[in-house]
């Protein structure tokens, strides 16, 4: 059954939700070039003021009070999804946005709405329960944990990243027939094969040196990133370090200054080959030439690394979904979690010297990906829309 019109509702709370939305759109349009798939920032669309306010407190909470953020994450996860409090919370965004969501559904007329952010799924659930729309609601969970704020009785399908998340949804009472294990969606360039030798030449890199990718933009300008950089620059064996700061211009300057100061001082580690990048649209290529990546444990970035088969070191995961992601990937044997620089030093040194560990980690990716990529969003959406249209015909 052809996919025609799909509305994807996301949010700008971190880059992960938006990247997942773009990956879904890319996958759908690759299969159905004539389809219309529109991505809308849900919170921004209903209230730009509320979006700025909520983003500010989200970012500040993670940066300045991660333990408090983790506390609220746990507390909200204790609220049953079918409770009066949870359903009252579902109406908040509708109240803030008035009838904008419903008006947009009536104007765009999508076959289905896909949610990569829990608030829009919650609002959609309210509209369905109140009989104000019949447009099906589908949720894509963008972390490796089934937080209760993702769960709603009127959701037709859940696309999840791993069997573990499916099991957690079932434990919360979600019928198994509503759950599909697709992996967290990543863009197509993270799924393709690359010629590593050609990429090394393209980016002016040395094939003989171990290559470490540091996704610094995820950390921001912080003491943690300075510690990480100092550690890598001081490492006694020759490395090739690729640092990506994203759109954070201040971080780019800080990293460049730290590298240049270290090299000018003539420290032992100044023989490393170090490249500092700002925002680039070829992260997949940098992952393809990397032997190891340092990053935060966000659902999307780690899923990109899983798709590329690049082992990860996750430094000081923030309590909440980051810790849940880190625990899952660590248990799968494809990532290593460190809380202190002392742990980091020991782990990295072991990684550099233990060929068996490196080989075993690579093998773990094969098992993990086999369990995660059981089907695709496009295939399941086709089947869902086909069954939905048949039911509609039977009723008419």
- When the domains are counted, the total is 2
Outline: globular
N-to-C SSE string, H for helix and E for strand? EHEHHHHHEHEEHEHEHEHEHEHEHEHHH
**CATH level 1 class label of the largest domain:** Alpha Beta
Subcellular location: Membrane
Domain Glycosyl transferase family 28 C-terminal: 238-342
Pfam family, one: MGDG_synth
Family: Belongs to the glycosyltransferase 28 family.
Describe the SSE topology:
Layout: E1 5-10, H1 16-31, E2 36-41, H2 42-46, H3 48-64, H4 66-77, H5 84-97, H6 100-108, E3 112-115, H7 118-129, E4 137-140, E5 155-160, H8 163-171, E6 179-181, H9 196-202, E7 211-215, H10 223-234, E8 240-244, H11 249-264, E9 273-277, H12 283-288, E10 292-295, H13 299-308, E11 312-315, H14 321-331, E12 335-338, H15 341-353, H16 355-372, H17 377-395
Parallel strand pairs: 1-2, 1-3, 3-4, 4-5, 5-6, 7-8, 7-10, 8-9, 10-11, 11-12
Helix pairs in contact: 3-4, 5-7, 10-11
Can you put this structure into words, describing what you see?
The mean pLDDT is 86. The protein has 2 domains: 5-183 and 373-395, Rossmann fold (3-Layer(aba) Sandwich); 194-371, Rossmann fold (3-Layer(aba) Sandwich), CATH 3.40.50. The protein has a 6-stranded parallel sheet with strand order 2-1-3-4-5-6, with helices on both faces. Strands 9-8-7-10-11-12 form a 6-stranded parallel sheet, with helices on both faces. The protein contains 17 helices and 12 strands. It has 396 residues and is of the alpha/beta class.
